[in-house]
Amino acid sequence: MKNKFILLLQEHRALGLLLKPCLITQRQGAPFYTIVKPIRSHNFLDNDYEYSQVEKRIVKITESFSDDSLVKRFKQKGGLKELYEKLTSDDFREKIEPIIDRTHTQCLRLMKQNGIRLFFSKGQKYNNIYDEDEIIIHDTNNTATFLFHKTDQSIRYAIRLNCNGKEISLPHRMLKVLTKNPCSIVVGHNLYLFEDLQGKKLKPFLKKSHLDVPLTIEDEYFKTFVLNTIKCYPVEGNGFTIKHIHELPKLVFEAEQVDDKHVLVKLLFSLHDHTASLSKHESIVSYRKQHGQYIYTKCDFPEKEYLQLLNILTEKNLKVENDILHFNDAKYYTKSSFIEILHELEESCIAFDITHRFLDGSKQFFIGKRELAFSVQQDDDWFDLKGTVTFGDYQFPFTHLKKHILNNIPEFELPNGQIALIPQEWFTKFKEIFSLSEGEVDNLKIRKVHFSLIDPTYLEEKQKIKKKLEKLSNNVEIVDVPDNIQATLRNYQVDGFHWMNYLNNNGFGGCLADDMGLGKTLQCITLIASLKEKLKRESNNEVLSTNLIVLPTTLVYNWENEINKFCPSLSCFKYVGTYRPKGALLNETIQNNDVILTTYGTIRNDYEILKQYRFQYVILDEGQNIKNPHSKTYKAIEQLNSIHRLSITGTPIENTLYDLWAQLNFLNKGLLGTEAWFKKNFLTPIEKKNDEEAQAKLLKLIQPFILRRTKEEVATDLPPLSEQTRLMKMSESQAKGYEKEKSAIRNMLLEEEIAGPSKEKQAPLVILQGLMTLRQWANHPQMITGDPSMNSGKFDEVMRMLRILRTEKHKILVFSSFVKHLNLFEKAFVEEQWKYSILTGQTHQRQEIIEKFQKEEDNNIFLISLKAGGVGLNLTEADYVFILDPWWNPAAELQAINRAHRIGQTKNVFVYRFISEGTIEEKIQKLKDKKSLLAEKFIQSNNPLNGFTSNELLSLIDDL
Questions:
Q1: Would the keyword Hydrolase be found if you checked this record's keyword annotation (predicted)?
Q2: 439 versus 488: which is more confidently predicted?
């Protein structure tokens, strides 16, 4: 015997007819079925039957009106008995009946589609059912005809049902209503589903055959009830005439204002100022009374067109429910978003003659072709861009939309009074063009550096400019590496050289932002040598075009050595020191040298002299030195005269995205607009709001002019780099001093907070002083007190590790941002009689000290201040890097690490960061990753403390 899944239709004492899922079985030879058990969802795991997905769904649907579910839904603490005692007719009609109607309809359709049988239940006492108890479901060919007969005494109203070809007159003693919306009835052993009929229409006729409507309300009755009935149902009778017309009605999107910004849109159909519901499949019916006769004109529902339109809407993620238009499940739109939907449906609107209207009387929107085309001419460093906009029959210059696009106003009025909606795509693509262009009446003048803003897809065909734009987008210019370069360039270095040639040939400035240690200096020397050869060939004689390279003081000798090493044929002069050449001697010096090396400090002093010369290149090493556009350095550098400009730095962004503006403005004037425009459109949206669209636009603008490769990407042959953070406990005296200082700083910060705005300008200084003091306590108390009896947990651990590494013959770089800290170690080394090197800002004979460390086997330790030795050092003999006092700027740490982990290193490199536990150092270390994410997108890490308030710093200190 196999169990089968069926549903029973049984009478509930309070809820009427309900569907109940059961398992039945039939013994061999038995004329009946035995009910095994009613089914609930907890039975799905039983082994007596394997339920299909449809059967499981039906069970879960029926559970929504089970006794337990209703008690839970109405939160009736007294249980089922109390629920039904308190259940009023209104409760049933408003809250429970719609649930039962909806779920019954779902079940009936699933049963019909999947061949699941339905039986009458004879009651809980009867456990057997027979085939003759089965109810057959009919879900098609069921209609209701409404009858109106006018007599001398009244208007007689009745309903006739046609069920699967059989006429059923009401009342009928065997008829029971199962659902009301839509209506389903049980007559004998048949169940009939009506698509559009509501069960409440049948209620008056369950006990009587007709209703009599008094003639005193005749006019109103024919004008309202009869008219609305004719809209939805077949109607027969006398005392009125129905004229059918075959004109195709128009579909209309009707928008109703629901609040200040949003509209609710309905899809209706309309004919001669009359509208009707599509979801109810209503017909359009108009009414008039003529010579005592009631005359109705009826236009049938456009079924075919409606179904075609629904398919199209579905493809566009649109659907219609109860006449309301839904897009991606949303039903409220701004006017602009609604009109954009209509533009998406433009072809369908034309094909189905769909119109739209706003119930608030707003002007008609233009729905038609919106086109934009450009013609472009190039003149030296500019593109002349002439755009033409087409809205249907109207054409005008694109510049007419400038104010709308810059001010985010999408609605533009056409000469005929219609409102044209500017596509959102145009705002996205052209807002920056309008902002950065220098306009004429009908044309836009766009700097060549903004070529990435010009979308070739909008250009008219057969434009030569397309090829120029493609060439600019392909940012390489293949040139042979000069023969006089005495080095084998790696592939990525050749690529960098090609990129700089591309910039040179197109008159662009650029920033080579490779990681420290990847050979940026060599790439620049290769460019200068190549350019020298090119100028010789083109002029057919000896032509010297001088290049000015501006450097930090610490890098002058490094550049001189690199030039002599890699391209000795380039003549080089150091324009530094007290006795700099002047007048005729300076003229001769510049004319007779390929490269002039100078410093940022020298430029500040001598810019009035140097700006008189025209250099081939001005190249800035560590270009972030001009990140402040209001500094004397920036203003001096800006006045230098050159054909080309180049910057090299591993850290274009040290503190904030604002660091980019001055550097890129020096390289390519106007690239990022004015300083105020950059802050408004990029700095504030990105740093304050994390605006991804603004980030994407900024990247698009700067990417052609910044080349960055990390060591992980290109120097795959570098040995592994291991990094560890060592947490150390402070000594007892150190910890007491630290806590005392922390309390004092906390009190100062509280005083600043209480003082309010009047002391706002002093707060940053207090914060900086407080942090500096806490850092020194975390390193070594002697840095503050000078008391030689006080010791440091960090100092002791570093010394312990240095002893081990010296014994193992390793070479170690020890970095600190405090010279005092290095001096404490230097004193200890002298006492230990260790050989060492030290490099700070006061160090002279820098190159000699570096060479001693590199070459002397027993010179194991190099003490270096971050400020003096973070850049320009090649110390590949070292394989350990100690960072004594990690702080907020990961870029500085990275530069320190790259002194050892760079091209030429063959040994594994180990990095140790030493942090005193429970101090400001530990907390800041945890903040680094969180605060550095933004700048990593735009080249390098930034300052995680940027923008901290006194209040936030209080929290930072209190958490430790």
A1: yes
A2: 488
